[in-house]
Specification:
mainly alpha; AhpD-like
Length: 201
């Protein structure tokens, strides 16, 4: 379960930043972004050498060199974040990636509380939804799902999807363990009892 305290356990760095920290934070953010660097990134910069090693992996998953189609990547990320209780990261991705990619309210809600068989998913999306769940629950892939994945994706894409799921477990551990506080602009994680509409950021 996520840390629900209103105070971060590891306080993120606050401005003014040194020139080195400022440059490192800019590398974490999308080019030309006018937003304050994310609280997650400012938390990671408490250990700047670790942050530098991690940035290459995160940029590789989200950047143009990725083999996986962005909408499929986001299904894996959102479902993994929901399963691990990483509401901070779910909300950031819902606002910064899922909404611009055209995710519907039903799809966002399904990543929080639904299942791969929900009618909002096509076959490829249902496969990667199941992949996120099986890796989270068993740390492996069933033979039945492997056959489905093999019919839809190249081996390199499946490897990248597995790494993506694993990476967002790492991010969940940091968000939840360090008590990273929600970004004011991020989409709130839906309450289980609310109707299907996800409030806009």
């Amino acid at each position: 379960m996520p840390n629900t305290d209103s105070t971060a356990r590891i306080p993120p760095l606050e401005p003014p930043y040194s020139a080195e920290i400022d440059e490192a934070l800019k590398r974490w953010m999308p080019p030309g972004s006018t937003l304050e660097p994310l609280a997650l990134f400012r938390t990671l910069m408490v250990h700047d050498r670790l942050s530098g090693r991690m940035r290459a992996v995160g940029a590789g998953i989200l950047g143009p060199s990725s083999l996986v189609e962005p909408r499929l990547r986001e299904v894996v990320i959102h479902r993994t974040c929901a399963l691990t209780g990483a509401h901070y990261e779910w909300g950031v991705h819902a606002s910064a990636f899922a909404r611009p990619l055209g995710f519907s309210d039903a799809q966002l809600r399904s990543t929080a509380y639904g299942k791969a068989e929900d009618s909002c998913w096509d076959e490829d999306q249902a496969c990667v939804f199941r992949l996120a769940e099986e890796l989270h629950q068993t740390s492996t892939i069933s033979e039945e799902l492997w056959q489905r994945l093999s019919a839809h994706f190249h081996d390199a894409e499946v490897l990248e999807l597995m790494v993506t799921a694993g990476w967002y477990h790492v991010i969940a551990y940091i968000c939840n363990g360090a008590g990273v506080q929600a970004e004011p602009w991020a989409t709130p994680f839906p309450d289980r009892g609310e109707p299907g509409v996800i409030p806009p950021p």
